[in-house]
Amino acid sequence: MSAKTVHTVRFEPVGVEMEVEEGEWVLDAAFRQGIALPHGCREGRCSSCKCVVLDGDAEVEGHSTFALPDHERDGGQVLLCRTYAYSDLTVELLNYDEDAMRRSIAIKTFEGQLVSVSSLTHDIRMLEIKLEQPIRFWAGQFVELSVPQAGVTRSYSMASTQSSPDTVRFIIRKYPEGAFSSLLDGDLKPGTPVTLKGPYGSCFRREERPGPMVLVGGGSGMSPLWSILQDHIESGEQRPIRFYYGARTRKDLFFVEEFAAIAAKLPDFEFIPVLSQATEEDAWQGETGFVHEAVERIQRARPQPGEVDAYTCGPPPMVDALLPVLQRLGVALDRTYVDKFTQASASAPNHVH
After folding, report:
1. Which residues 6+ apart lie within 8 Å of 186 measured at CB?
2. What is the pTM of this model?
3. Across the strands, what pairs with 58?
4. What number of other Cβ atoms are within 10 A of residue 165's Cβ?
5. Which of 130, 246, 328, 353 fits as disulfide partner to 291, beta carbons 3.0 to 4.6 Å?
C-alpha cells in the first residue's frame, strides 16, 4: 500500500506550521493536531475559516458561493474547511485569535450513554450524557453527537462546564421531521449508546477580562451561553453581565427561576428576555420586538464602562441582525464571538442545535 502524501502548511502572520495529508481537508488536519483555526459550520457555508493562499497549490471544493464568491476564489481566497492541499502551502489568516490558538485542544472521540431527556419547553429538550472518560473543552464549545444505532450525527453545544467533565448536557431544539429531533421524544432512552467527537468552536469564554460581557441568544442558542455563564460563575471572576434572550412567546422561555436566583447572588447581572410575538394571554410586561433591537436600545440607554466581550449564539437571521448592532455600539470585532446555528443538510453534521 502506498504511503500517504503529506504537505506542510504554514499560517501567517502567526508562523504556525502543521502537516496535511492529500485528500484531507486543511481544517480537519488542524483539528487532528490540536490547532485552533477560526471556523464555524465546517461545511463551506459560513466563511468563518476564509483565508488567502499566498503560495502553493490548493483547491477548494463543495462550498457555498455566498460564503466564497467566485471572484474571491479566483483571487486566491479559500475556505479551509473545504480546501485540499496539493503541495506545501503558505496561508494568510484573515481572522485569527491568538488566545484561541494558544488554548487549542486536540479533537478526540468519546463513548458514552444517554442518562436522560427532559423537556424545558414544548420544543426544547435537555439531554444528559455520561461519558466513559472525561472530555476537556472550553465553555461555549460544541461536539459532534452521534447515535450509532440510528445512524445520525449532529453538532450541538455543551450546556455544561468543565466542573462535570464526564457528564455533559445539551439544550436541543426539536425541528419538524429532523433526523435527530425525531429521536428526542421516542427512540432516545436511558442507556442508549452515543459518541461525542470534539471539541470544536472558537465562541468560548475568554477568561480574566474585567469589562462587561453581553450574551445574546435565541432558541437553543441558550446552550453555549448557559455554559459560558455557569463557567464565569464558577471562576469567581467579577464583571457586569447582560444576558439577552429572544423568544416568540412566554411559553418559549425557560430557566426563568434559575436566572432570578443568579441575579440575586451575582453583582451587576441582568437577564433580559425579549418576546417577538407576545400574546394577550402572556400578559407580558417585559421587552418586546426583536432581540437585536432590544440590545441596541438598552445598551445605548444603560451602557457599562469598559471593553465589551459579546457572545451571540442562535439562528442565522438573529446573528446577522445583531452583528451590525454590536458594531454600532462600539464592540470590537475581535471581541465579538459568534456561533451561528445552521439547518441540517442530509450530507453533513451541521451545527443545528
Report:
1. none
2. 0.80
3. 85
4. 14
5. 246
